[in-house]
Amino acid sequence: MGKNRVVWRYDPVIITPEWTVNNHIRNFNAIADQFSGYTNKCVISFVDYYKKIMKNLAPIVHYQITNEQIAEIAYNFSLTGARNGLEIVSCAEAADLSEYKIFHGKCIDDKLIEEISGVKLNIDKDKNQRSACGCVESIDIGEYNSCPHGCLYCYANSNMDKVRENYSEYNPLSGLQLGQLTDEDVVFEKNITGHKQLQPVLFKDNIP
């Protein structure tokens, strides 16, 4: 399969009495050491306090992360990355961490897809994402309010009652993530444009 096919995430970084800067640094070190040799890349980000996140985090003590804390974490993460031959990129972060060799990344990465597939792509940045997001156009196959793990900082869950309701409809024999089609449902075929560059590529090394 290859190490380039495995990308792990350490995010979002959130500061609490239990999860201090030093604890994050130690935890990142431990995970990176275990993953050493199995992956080339890690994606990091710092928590964004969206309205629904603030609601979920209300039961616990948490702190607004400071620029100094971000710099300390980035510096130490970069040392760990260098020791493990690990490229670290940020996800939808406005902060410039390039002095720590941490550059802006993209989770839906056209260059990585080209490298793995050997196919040249002609694809634009996803206009539906945040301005700081570097992802290229894609179709999200996930579903909001569907994961039962209940992480308080999760951006995808806003109501655990709705999560439990949705999860109860899961059917492993269905082609849908949640529930199954009924006679009352209407299915529309999505018009999808391919992004493969039609000009043949003779040598994979020519793919940037």
Structure description:
With 208 residues, this protein is an alpha/beta fold. Among the domains are: 3-105; 141-177, no CATH class. It contains 5 helices and 4 strands. The protein has helices at 21-35, 51-57, 67-83, 110-117, 160-168; strands at residues 7-13, 41-46, 87-90, 103-104. A 4-stranded parallel sheet has the order 1-2-3-4, with helices on one face. Strand 1 (7-13), helix 1 (21-35) and strand 2 form a beta-alpha-beta unit. Helix 1 (21-35) packs parallel to helix 3. The two termini are 20 Å apart. The mean pLDDT is 90.
Instruction: Show unreliable segments.
Output: none
Largest sheet, strands/sense/barrel: 4 strands, parallel
Question: What count of helical segments does DSSP give?
Answer: 5
Q: Distance between the terminal alpha carbons, to the nearest Å?
A: 20 Å
Share of helix, binned:
25-40%
Number of E strands: 4
What order do the helices and strands follow?
EHEHHEEHH
Oligomer: single chain
Strand order of the largest sheet: 1-2-3-4
* Shape designation: globular
Give me the Rg, rounded: 20 Å
| Structural class determined from secondary elements | alpha/beta
Summary keywords:
4 strands; globular; four-stranded parallel β-sheet; 208 residues; alpha/beta
Concise description?
This protein is an alpha/beta fold and 208 residues long. The protein has 5 helices and 4 strands. It has a 4-stranded parallel β-sheet, with helices on one face.
Blueprint (SSEs and pairs):
Blueprint: E1 7-13, H1 21-35, E2 41-46, H2 51-57, H3 67-83, E3 87-90, E4 103-104, H4 110-117, H5 160-168
Parallel strand pairs: 1-2, 2-3, 3-4
